[in-house]
């Protein structure tokens, strides 16, 4: 089947914009994309009325937790829900995510291995959701942060076993906890967790299987240790110092800032159900997090969009709020979009397939009423999202009913 999107504004994920462009999709791939005057539409293509709209690559969220639902006390919920209930909820959250124009996610911590069943169900068409890359259980030290969705391990031998368990279950990457966190009682975000040897062991074991490692790290000490160990990305990067920023640039390590996670938690009033210690930690770090993001942007650190969706009041389906926050802290709208398309695809190792609108790439597209380069908030307005296409199939939005 062929679909033609004629006379649209094209944001291609490469940093350029074309007015009055035409994009032709054949089966699951982009056949052509360019100025309408020079782009041939093959006979038999289905024309969609998208004149005046904007088409851009499907957005990529590099940090979600489909097993968490944004409840005030997510730790208690995930600890008390049965595996079956968690999986049913995760399927619902996946549907909300794709409906918001997020066509690929990286799930970086799930209680148990149910996330791999969800990934398979989505790929088989049994459940509607985005493409999923999953880490399985986060690997943490005994008593460490994220133990409620983690696999506790201590020392190189146990680290190897924990990594291999995730890989055997189907992990696309490994997630390691390199500092304390906000949600876990008794842990400090400033303090490093795991030794350099332990993190390096995790990286080496993952790389033996051709996989990358994402490291949760709020504090600068944890960040620097993880970068030295060879991780691919630092998740959060909340309390960055100059030395950490320099290390990230030198080693070309991505950060996934997850600005929305701290902002939504810090912004809720005491008594809303979020444990007081969690709110306190979030509020204490919010200003420093914003400063770290500005520093990273100014220094040219590689930034990929991620939301930490699933944390308190940080709901699946509202992922594009992260782009608003990035722009508010100094990114241009185009830079923010690139962080959620080409840059995110590069981090995930999928830049040969997704992240840009080019012939031969998979047809992951979103079609928006209006111009997000003038108003980035359009990307989080479900009423402006005319269509979401995943591998050439319109799966959501009003345009889905026209094909």
UniProtKB/TrEMBL annotation:
<feature type="domain" description="Amidohydrolase-related">
    <location>
        <begin position="54"/>
        <end position="395"/>
    </location>
</feature>
<dbReference type="InterPro" id="IPR051781">
    <property type="entry name" value="Metallo-dep_Hydrolase"/>
</dbReference>
<protein>
    <submittedName>
        <fullName>Amidohydrolase family protein</fullName>
    </submittedName>
</protein>
<dbReference type="Pfam" id="PF01979">
    <property type="entry name" value="Amidohydro_1"/>
</dbReference>
<dbReference type="InterPro" id="IPR057744">
    <property type="entry name" value="OTAase-like"/>
</dbReference>
<dbReference type="InterPro" id="IPR032466">
    <property type="entry name" value="Metal_Hydrolase"/>
</dbReference>
<dbReference type="InterPro" id="IPR011059">
    <property type="entry name" value="Metal-dep_hydrolase_composite"/>
</dbReference>
<dbReference type="InterPro" id="IPR006680">
    <property type="entry name" value="Amidohydro-rel"/>
</dbReference>
<dbReference type="GO" id="GO:0016810">
    <property type="term" value="F:hydrolase activity, acting on carbon-nitrogen (but not peptide) bonds"/>
</dbReference>
């Amino acid at each position: 089947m062929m679909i033609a999107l004629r006379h649209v504004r094209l944001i291609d994920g490469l940093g350029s914009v074309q007015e009055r462009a035409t994009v032709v999709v054949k089966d699951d791939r982009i056949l052509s994309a360019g100025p309408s005057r020079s782009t041939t539409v093959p006979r038999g293509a289905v024309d969609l009325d998208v004149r005046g709209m904007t088409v851009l690559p499907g957005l990529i969220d590099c940090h979600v937790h489909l097993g968490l639902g944004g409840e005030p006390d997510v730790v208690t919920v995930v600890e008390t829900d049965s595996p079956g209930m968690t999986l049913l909820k995760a399927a619902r959250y996946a549907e909300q995510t794709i409906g918001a124009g997020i066509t690929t996610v990286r799930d970086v911590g799930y209680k148990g291995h149910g996330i791999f069943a969800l990934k398979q169900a989505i790929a088989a068409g049994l459940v509607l959701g985005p493409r999923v890359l999953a880490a399985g259980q986060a690997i943490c030290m005994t008593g460490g942060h994220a133990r409620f969705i983690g696999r506790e391990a201590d020392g190189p031998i146990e680290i190897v076993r924990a990594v291999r368990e995730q890989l055997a279950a189907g992990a696309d990457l490994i997630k390691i906890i390199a500092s304390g966190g906000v949600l876990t009682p008794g842990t400090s975000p400033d303090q490093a967790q795991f030794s350099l040897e332990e993190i390096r062991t995790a990286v080496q074991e993952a790389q033996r299987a051709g996989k990358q490692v994402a490291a949760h790290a709020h504090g600068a000490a944890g960040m620097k240790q993880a970068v030295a160990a060879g991780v691919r990305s630092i998740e959060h990067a909340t309390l960055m110092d100059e030395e950490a920023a320099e290390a990230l640039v030198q080693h070309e390590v991505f950060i996934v800032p997850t600005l929305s996670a701290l902002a939504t938690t810090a912004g809720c009033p005491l008594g809303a159900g979020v444990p007081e210690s969690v709110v306190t930690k979030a509020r204490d770090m919010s200003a420093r997090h914003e400063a770290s993001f500005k520093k990273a942007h100014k220094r040219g650190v590689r930034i990929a969009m991620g939301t930490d969706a699933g944390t308190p009041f940080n709901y699946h389906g509202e992922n594009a709020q992260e782009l608003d926050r990035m722009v508010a802290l100094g990114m241009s709208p185009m830079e923010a979009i690139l962080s959620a398309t080409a840059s995110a695809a590069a981090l995930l190792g999928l830049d040969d397939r997704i992240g840009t609108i080019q012939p031969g790439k998979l047809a992951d597209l979103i079609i928006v009423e209006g111009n997000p380069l003038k108003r980035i908030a359009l990307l989080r307005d479900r009423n402006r999202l005319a269509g979401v296409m995943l591998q050439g199939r319109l799966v959501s939005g009003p345009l889905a009913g026209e094909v």
